[in-house]
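hey
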């Protein structure tokens, strides 16, 4: 059992708390039983799994599966596990997983989301979870957004991170142009737009364009959109949380497709 915080493996895993080391090593952390279970469910590769004796007692069947699936497993003391985790109260297991290259995206036939310069990991994780629930085909982020492998993103996604194609866009204008060439309509959120989001035909292949938490969409992104839509609001409310806005758009698209189908 690993008990020392000076153990080389422990030191190496703790480096993954920082984004620069995750990029360098092309690995990231999975914290908590639920995320580990979801990784096993989709056969996502795992390099190293560390768990406490109490967790081993509670999840014997899961330990057996991990022994077959992961490259290596280690029993660690609660003190070591606490140091490996980024959460205040870890539930007893932390895994290290490799970053996989995303598969070449298939032509978009349904609904997707592209978010420009998103900064809050909790918002991104919530959007991923909502996108899966609403039946979206994928989520795209510009390169200046929060990292997809941020620990808070994975936790906020409630395990759905593994069930949605996620892509970082390196050339935004090229990506938008490619979609339009494929007859995918681009629907941008704009608080000043006269058209409301339920007035657009969302049964067509659609990508919703959303901006970050403060500045919204850039003018270059707005200019490329086929439609600019607003979300009607009452009172003195000027804007909605970006994850809430995404949920409204996705579920309106799901409603239209269900009723149209």
């Amino acid at each position: 059992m690993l008990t020392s915080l000076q153990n080389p493996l422990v030191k190496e895993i703790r480096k993954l708390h920082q984004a620069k080391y995750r990029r360098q090593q092309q690995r990231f952390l999975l914290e908590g039983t639920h995320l580990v279970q979801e990784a096993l469910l989709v056969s996502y590769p795992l390099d190293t799994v560390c768990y406490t004796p109490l967790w081993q007692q509670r999840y014997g069947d899961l330990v057996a599966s991990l022994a077959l699936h992961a490259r290596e497993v280690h029993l660690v003391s609660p003190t070591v596990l606490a140091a490996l985790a980024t959460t205040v109260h870890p539930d007893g297991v932390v895994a290290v997983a490799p970053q996989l290259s995303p598969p070449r995206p298939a032509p978009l036939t349904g609904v997707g989301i592209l978010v420009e310069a998103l900064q809050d990991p909790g918002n991104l994780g919530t959007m991923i979870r909502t996108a899966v629930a609403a039946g979206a085909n994928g989520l795209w982020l510009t390169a200046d957004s929060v990292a997809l492998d941020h620990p808070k993103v994975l936790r906020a996604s409630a395990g759905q991170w593994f069930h949605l194609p996620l892509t970082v866009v390196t050339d935004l204008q090229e990506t938008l142009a490619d979609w339009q060439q494929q007859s995918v309509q681009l629907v941008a959120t704009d608080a000043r737009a006269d058209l409301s989001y339920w007035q657009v035909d969302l049964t067509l292949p659609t990508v919703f364009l959303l901006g970050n938490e403060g500045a919204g969409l850039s003018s270059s992104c707005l200019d490329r959109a086929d439609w600019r839509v607003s979300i009607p609001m009452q009172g003195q409310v000027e804007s909605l949380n970006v994850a809430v806005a995404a949920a409204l758009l996705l579920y309106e698209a799901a409603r239209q497709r269900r009723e149209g189908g």
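Residues 111-260 form a domain with the Alpha/beta knot fold (CATH 3.40.1280.10). The first strand starts at residue 27 and ends at 31.
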